Amino acid sequence: MPLLHSNGSDLSRKLATQTVGHWLPRDKKVILGWACHKARQARKHNAPLNPSLQAFSAFIKNNPTLNQLGESMWTEVPASYYCGEDPTGHPEIRDFDTFIQTVNTILVTGPEFYDIKGQSVQAENAMGLIGFPINAILDWPMGTQSGWLFWYDSEVNKHFQPVLQAFTHFLGSKASRKVLKAPSGWVGQDAQHLLATKGNDGVTKYSFTQLYQCPDPSDAEYLGFNSWDHFFTRRFKRNIRPVAEPDNNSILNNSCESAPLQYTKNVKAIDNFMLKGQPYSLMNMLNSHAGYAQQFIGGSVFQAFLSALSYHRWNSPVNGTVLDTINVPGTYYSENPYQGFPNPDPSAPNNSQPYISSVATRGIIYIQADGPIGLMAIVYIGMAEVSSCEFTVRKKQRIRKGDELGMFHFGGSSHCMVFRPGVELVFNEPSPGPPRQDGTWDQTNEQNLPVNGPLAYVTTAS
């Protein structure tokens, strides 16, 4: 049985160079260098704008307030935050038009895997995955006051949605698989080793093709994947993620391959989610559905985040019946106001995950679970470019633990499981173990909880 042969310490070091969830490099010089490269590429080719970008740009320019915000979010970034700039010492993207031109180039390019050694723009041996290319460009501007006002605006998001839909269309096309091609792409050995390392998470030693279903393992260039989206929504092989306690309704399983973020009790119907502490607000999170929201008042929320390098489908954590599925449009690049300047989140909106549960594009499923859990909701949250939440189940469908519920396209972000008051979770030992006193888990290692694995023992208040 072929196992993972790559140097473990080297791969661990590469993973450590990425931000939470491995969507962006920790080294800001890597992001800035990449953005500069894309901007220069866009200027060199000067391709006609995608119609969706043309329409978005025209909408912004015809609105004096939004036009001003669209320009100011670039100029409000302090010069000191642009370290390692272009050869002239200035950030390559300094205005709205250059942003539009650069996004135009991104719309016909899949997320690239690159591993550049010994380059000044990166830490030694850094793996420079830019999992959120548009987010990477907006990393600092979205943290300015103008950036927050711009990207929180519902009309801005409504008009930017077709741009992301165009990107989604490209990522589902055969042209997008160029970035998969071995030996340097995602099907190459270096990338396979990195993905397998995350999939094994220090517990097993399977190779990539042992972990995941590959349409044609004999295809050395693409492994049979016909697009970037096909590759990114790949499934685990049978029995790689066995369903824990399939008939025990007192055991709650993991719905996603994800790392635990926090567990919050006594959630309110309405709360100010824009505060620094980012409390959950049920009415906002559940899209003002009072009939459902009121049943969770005083209950609890468990939140966990997904990695760019992992599995992006959602499985049922319980046995039960689907009551409803709802897709909610929302923001794409909005972060909690307290995560902006003067002390910005270096990988925005990673530090705003509770906040985005109330504002971002999301898919909500309500399940009547068997046993002590009863009614529960799961909120699958799209973040930045990850805006497409697809359900594969329907109302009144009977589901069992481990059944597929749906997926994120182009990766994943975060998800929340919402419980009624009186439902208590005793978290599985040793992983994830109980949260810290503030309800959070240590994010140092970002070790994933395996999808279908046991998350918690469920009890109810007497």
Automatic annotation (TrEMBL):
Q: Does the keyword Lyase apply?
A: yes
Residues of the L-tryptophan decarboxylase PsiD-like domain: 51-193
Which Gene Ontology molecular-function terms are recorded? phosphatidylserine decarboxylase activity
GO BP term (any one): phosphatidylethanolamine biosynthetic process
> Cellular component per GO?
mitochondrion
User: Can you say what this protein is called?
Assistant: Phophatidylserine decarboxylase-domain-containing protein
Stored InterPro entries: PS_Dcarbxylase, PsiD-like
Q: Which UniProt keywords apply?
A: Decarboxylase, Lyase
